Amino acid sequence: MNRKSLIQPLVALLCLSTVILITAGPATGQTVKIKMGAGSSPPILDSITPYVAIEAGIFKKYGLDVEMVEFRGDVVLTTALVAGDINVCSNLGATSAIVSASKGAKLRLWFVPQPVTPYHFVARKEAGTTIQALAGKTVAVSGIGAISYHIPRMIMERNGIDPEKLKYVVAGSTADRFKALVSGKVDATVLSTIEAAKLAGYPDIIDLVVVAKVVPEIPFTFSMAREDFIQKEPETMYRLAKAMIEANRWIAANKAGTVQIAAKVIPDEKPEILSKAYDLADPHLWGVNGDISEASYRFTNDFLVKVGYMTDPPPYDKFFDRRFVDRALKELGRK
Q1: Residue 6 domain flag
Q2: Are 327 and 254 in contact (CB under 8 A)?
Q3: What does the angle CA 150 – CA 153 – CA 154 come to, to the nearest 5 degrees?
Q4: Same domain assignment for residues 303 and 261
Q5: Same-domain status, 239 and 183
Q6: 3 occurs within a structural domain
Q7: CATH number at residue 82
Q8: How far apart are CA 59 and CA 32, in angstroms?
Q9: I want to staple 319 with a disulfide (CB 3.0 to 4.6 A). Which of 254, 289, 314, 332 is the partner?
């Protein structure tokens, strides 16, 4: 065999190897750019998962260049997602996501970042220091039928008290409800961990209930994507799910690092408040397995049907595309 006949197969083999390397996954340096929507602007500690994945280099590790695009609320976020202005979203309100899917939006759940709510049910001391004592008192809500309306009702029911014995006052956003409570215009309300962390400065207000301990079935946020994007980019979806799981595990195990990142992306809040809020969050807030049980999903569906938000709930296996979470958990193990 002459020298030329030896060289040609080697050249062909090298060319084939180059093609394989170019088309391989993130380990080869190939990066996928993703526009990820967030339903809070500015970000909040309770749904900081993707920001941690960016700042801690977890997305980068999996070959993902993620750009966060922030929206004010679920409606505008859902509109942008359906329109294709963003590829995926990290934290759409769970109940809003289910209702949207029930109405025909071609969206699927691909990851559960916060499987329980971060809320605290708080009250003025003069109104009562127990749930039972709140019967007949006023509760500030963002609107009749809102989650801030239903959570106090669930808490009352689970404590054997008729929720109709509460008087509901529409006061607006979490910040507005907090102001109404501080001023004495209402007796109780539901707050997030950030507001609950500020209660040390208001000795007349007490934290009665960590909502996730009483109503653990209700999820807080869902990560959603359009069905066509999932079908087109299954490998990207797997890498996103694995990175988000690792980010939540990093958050759950790394308070100091989480607070440091939170202080960077939420500059209006003091680090000591963020630190306190981290401590006040239910440990299960960070979805270290990225999923939700079918029982919890069914409970939430039944609740949404009961209160008239939808009539035809999407089945669990049609709504939640578990392929990516399940694959990631097979590699990472469950916690």
Answers
A1: no
A2: no
A3: 90
A4: yes
A5: no
A6: no
A7: 3.40.190.10
A8: 10
A9: 314
β-pairing, 188-191 vs 205-210, is unpaired
**With contact defined as beta carbons under 8 Å apart, do 320 and 292 qualify?**
yes
- b/e map 48-74, b = 16+ CB within 10 Å: bbbbbbbbbebbeebbbebebbebeeb
- For residues 220 and 117, is the Cβ–Cβ distance under 8 A? yes
* Other beta carbons less than 10 A from residue 302's beta carbon: 12
- Segments of 19-115 assigned E as strands: 32-38, 64-70, 88-89, 92-93, 107-114
> What gap in Å lies between CA 262 and CA 267, rounded to an integer?
8
Range of the domain at 210: 120-214
Decide: 106 and 228 in contact? Cβ < 8 Å: yes
275, 281, 285, 286: CA torsion to nearest 10: 20
CA distance 99 to 78: 11
Residues in the chain: 335
- pLDDT of the residue at 29: 54
**The one-letter amino acid at 139:** V
The closest of 268, 119, 240, 135 to 189, measured between CA atoms, is: 119
Compute the 3-state secondary structure of the chain and give helix, strand, coil in percent, each to the nearest 5. Answer: 50, 15, 30
